[in-house]
Design a protein that fits this description.
It comes from Cohnella terricola. This protein is an alpha/beta fold. It is about 30% helix and about 15% strand. It is built from 10 helices and 9 strands. The relative contact order is 0.15. The structure holds SN-glycerol-3-phosphate and calcium ion. The site of calcium ion has 3 residues, from strand 2.
């Protein structure tokens, strides 16, 4: 398969640090991303959302409630309000074994800060999150990627087909992943695979609902498959055995170890 902008590691399986090395450090913070890079993840995964005043920030949930000491929707808070929040203490309380004093000084990073900090030291798996909540999330994200000259260092994923189709219309080469989520054993039709192949290079799918046949079917259609979020060793081993192309994990070091032993 020939995707000029997609990175293929020597191990043949891509490691995506999901929200950074978020098993070990507060998710979606510079600490978590730095650790993901230090653990040699091929990509750091970033959920992109927008503040009330239109700044792009890294945050998974629609609200700041779970991962900061504040409350409210990201889209209803200004960047200044978001920046006043503590984005690390919650982690220390929840995971005392990985707690570090420096995490209490973590803030919610903007996408600009992430690009400024890491530049071309890593690759970025950007997720366009909840685009229906914002008018121009794709445009703003793409503009920032262009400003930093990082087109060859990114891949973009979304649950929104519309978002991906829009981005594909701007760039033929950027690797795109359609995210899928199943609440029962996964099934994908030939029709769906053909449809996705029309605008994306691969899919991201919740690992626990798929099996080897699903993986083979997706690959047979010429699409890449990067399951998420694979955190336990036995699941990592199975994912690799089934031939997935990449894995999203909160524990990139663990996955690196598993694929080294293959
Ligand atoms: O990386 C894929 C995954 O991020 C999609 O699910 O909920 O963690 O954003 P979620
Ligand atoms: Ca995500």
């Amino acid at each position: 398969i020939d995707f000029p902008s997609l990175y293929f590691p020597e191990s043949h399986i891509v490691t995506v640090a999901h929200r950074g090395a978020s098993g070990y450090a507060p998710e979606s913070t510079l600490s978590s991303y730095r650790l993901g890079i230090r653990m040699n993840a091929d990509y750091i995964e970033i959920d992109v959302q927008e503040t009330k005043d239109g700044e792009l920030v890294a945050m998974h949930d629609k609200t700041v409630n779970r991962t900061t000491n504040g409350s409210g929707n990201i889209k209803d808070l200004t960047l200044e309000e978001v920046k006043s929040l503590d984005a690390g203490t919650w982690f220390n309380r929840k995971h005392p074994i990985y707690a570090r004093e420096e995490y209490t000084r973590e803030k919610v990073p903007t996408l600009r800060e992430i690009f400024e900090t890491f530049g071309t030291d890593t690759r970025y798996m950007l997720e366009i999150k909840d685009p229906e909540d914002y008018s121009d999330l794709e445009e703003k994200t793409w503009a920032l990627v262009e400003e930093f000259g990082l087109k060859d260092y990114i891949a973009i994923q979304s649950f929104s087909k519309d978002s991906l189709v829009k981005i594909r219309s701007w760039d033929k080469n950027v690797p795109l992943f359609q995210l899928l989520w199943y609440n029962r054993p996964a099934h994908i039709s030939e029709q769906q695979l053909a449809d996705i192949s029309g605008y994306a290079n691969g899919i991201g799918v919740n690992f626990l609902r798929i099996n080897e046949n699903y993986v083979l079917k997706v690959k047979h259609a010429g699409l890449l498959i990067y399951p998420y979020t694979v955190n336990y060793q036995v699941n990592m081993e199975n994912a690799a055995k089934w031939g997935v192309d990449g894995v999203h994990t909160d524990f990139p070091d663990r996955f690196k170890e598993v694929i080294e032993e293959l």
